[in-house]
Specification:
Elements lengths: L2 H7 L9 H7 L3 E7 L1 E2 L11 E2 L7 H14 L6 E8 L7 H15 L1 E11 L6 H10 L3 E7 L3 H6 L9 H11 L3 E8 L6 H13 L4 E6 L7 H7 L7 H16 L4 E4 L2 E3 L6 H7 L3 E5 L4 E4 L2 E5 L3 H9 L5 E6 L2 H12 L6 E2 L2 H8 L1 H8 L3 E4 L2 E4 L5 H9 L7
Parallel strand pairs: 1-4, 1-11, 2-3, 4-5, 5-6, 6-7, 7-8
Antiparallel strand pairs: 8-10, 9-10, 12-13, 13-14, 15-17, 16-17
Helix pairs in contact: 2-11, 3-4, 3-12, 4-5, 8-10, 13-16, 14-15
Length: 399
């Protein structure tokens, strides 16, 4: 067994917060496939999607384009994790998803015990589709739950009802998914504290393996952004902090611990794709608006479907742009991303330079970050973004 295979095997044995797991993830290779189709756009969403209420989309044509793009990519070694997200991957024929996994495996090969994760919306759930997803090779499923309060779901623009979720989770387990995640969004101005507490309690009773929690964010150009600009109430930072802290306390008491600011898992169920990206590993991106990072190069695809398909038809990678990263850029990115991990990030030259900087020294003195076991660790995840912004400001001369 190679060193990389040995590192990979610890994903199911080490605690989700273990530094050894975070460091192993830095060496993993992963791939992301973006499926842009949605029944409609949620009011908070600024992702690259195709709204099927307004546009008749050709799923098969898009799937063919993604397969062609995969064939254009050079290898980076065997893949340790694959994530198919969106958009709404569960909206398209499972056969297209199976073809995409097969194409990735043929082109790059999969490491033993590879994680293959699929994002789904509850309203698309059927037992037949679940069986097809498992037969295609998916072993991890991520359910876009968001809330277990129907009024809050309505405010968020979601199409499912809370009453179906317990059955979906139960049937996902019966279908053979090794790991089950649910996504939650907290802090909508119309969400009472009692609603959030009830959602958290009921999610804990679902006995899932992983929970991703996201504070509702107002993005420019979205329906929510326009509404707030017109005078509607915006999410309150203090309220969101209280919601987050309540979840962390409730989840940790049930063995679901934060290994990254927004991601919480039982031991053995930390998402490998999440870990590899936050640990600054290499990852490939395919499909509309997909991003990738490999060999010190960051790339991103076109966000417009016509431009994406036009380039594919012409035999070109559908690139909107690329950026070459030098060693200093790479270390800075690893620091910024790694601070979000509960295990922290190694004390590289850039991490040491940050600690020596005026801003970094203030954070250390205030106990916001600490040096522990040769690593730089964030003490309070609620200030992760503020610390990351300061970390990015470390000057070239300090590196």
């Amino acid at each position: 067994m190679s060193d990389r295979q040995a590192d990979k095997s610890i994903a199911r044995t080490l605690p989700a917060r273990d530094p050894l797991l975070a460091d192993a993830a830095h060496e993993w290779k992963s791939a992301y496939i973006h499926i842009p189709f949605c029944r409609r756009r949620c009011p908070y969403c600024d992702f690259a999607i195709v709204d099927e209420s307004a546009v008749r989309s050709d799923h098969a044509r898009y799937a063919e384009a993604v397969l062609a793009e995969i064939e254009m990519e050079e290898g980076i070694g065997r893949l340790d994790a694959v994530n198919v997200g969106g958009g709404t991957p569960s909206l398209i024929d499972p056969a297209h998803l199976a073809d995409m996994l097969d194409a990735l495996e043929r082109r790059f090969a999969f490491a033993p015990d590879v994680e293959r994760s699929l994002e789904i919306n509850p309203e698309d759930w059927t037992v037949e589709r679940a069986d097809a997803w498992v037969a295609a090779g998916f072993d991890r499923i991520s359910i876009g739950l968001q809330s277990l309060d129907d009024e809050v779901l309505g405010d968020l623009g979601r199409m499912h009802r809370a009453s179906i979720i317990a059955e979906v989770v139960s049937e996902a387990r019966a279908a053979g998914f090794r790991s089950i995640n649910v996504d939650l969004i907290f802090g909508h101005p119309g969400e009472p504290a009692a609603s959030w507490r009830s959602t958290v309690d009921r999610v804990m009773d679902l006995d899932v393996d992983h929970v991703s929690t996201y504070a509702l964010t107002v993005e420019a150009g979205t329906e929510l952004g326009r509404s707030v600009s017109d005078g509607a109430p915006a999410p309150d930072d203090d309220v969101q902090a209280e919601r987050y802290e309540h979840f962390v306390a409730a989840a940790s008491s049930r063995g679901i611990v934060a290994y990254e600011v927004s991601n919480h898992a039982r031991d053995g169920h930390a998402c490998r794709y999440n870990l590899s990206t936050w640990a600054h590993g290499e990852y490939l991106g395919f499909g509309l608006a997909a991003h990738d990072h490999r060999w010190g190069i960051r790339g991103r695809n076109h966000r417009r479907m016509d431009r994406y398909v036009e380039d594919i038809d012409a035999g070109r990678r559908p690139r909107l742009g690329t950026e070459t990263l030098d060693r200093r850029d790479q270390e800075r990115d690893r620091l910024m991303l790694g601070l979000r991990l509960a295990a922290g990030t190694p004390m590289t030259d850039t991490a040491e330079a940050f600690v020596r900087s005026e801003a970094g020294a203030r954070f250390v003195d205030a106990g916001v970050i600490r040096i522990e076991g040769g690593r730089l660790v964030l003490s309070n995840p609620l200030v992760a973004d503020a610390v990351a912004r300061e970390a990015l400001s470390v000057s070239a001369s300090d590196c």
